[in-house]
Specification:
By secondary structure, the protein is α+β, with helices and mostly antiparallel strands. It folds into 2 domains: about 80 residues, no CATH class; about 70 residues, 2-Layer Sandwich (Histidine-containing Protein, Chain: A). The strands form 2 sheets. The chain has a 3-stranded mixed β-sheet with strand order 3-4-5. A two-stranded antiparallel sheet has the order 1-2. Helix 1 packs antiparallel against helix 2. The longest helix has about 55 residues. It is rod-shaped and about 105 Å long. It starts with 9 loop residues before the first helix and ends with a strand.
Amino acid sequence: MKTSDNRRSPLAGCLAALAVASVAALGACDKTTTTTQSPAGTVTTTTLSPNAQASAVMGKINESLAGAASAVQSSAAASEALTKAGNAIEDGVITAKVKAALLTDPDTKGLQIDVDTHDGVVRLTGSVDKRADLERALRIARDTAGVKSVDNQLALKTSA
């Protein structure tokens, strides 16, 4: 069974009010018709000008539109803030998963590897003893769910 959502957005309500008010404002205009004679013939000019009532209605329409625009901007800003918060949480989860996998892996020394994630890109920094440890750390990071790519900043320790 299909249900419909009968709620209207604030913008839809403002647009409906705008349509009704516009019709009312046009009906409250003063009409002036002027006929003049010219060498080319008769010219008739009709001018519509808003009376006080129409001007007041148009003022209310402008206020309503400004309020609707503000509501739309606030909604967009809130949506953007929620998206950023969601991305930060997701990045934190990815960092925790990669770090936990490195710490529990017997071949890598997870305490020597720092993990940072931004927009799904994992950055590995620190130093490892062998090339195999570096390759293993990269593989662990790449295989972690949610990782888009890995920025390898790991360094191999040099033997003294």
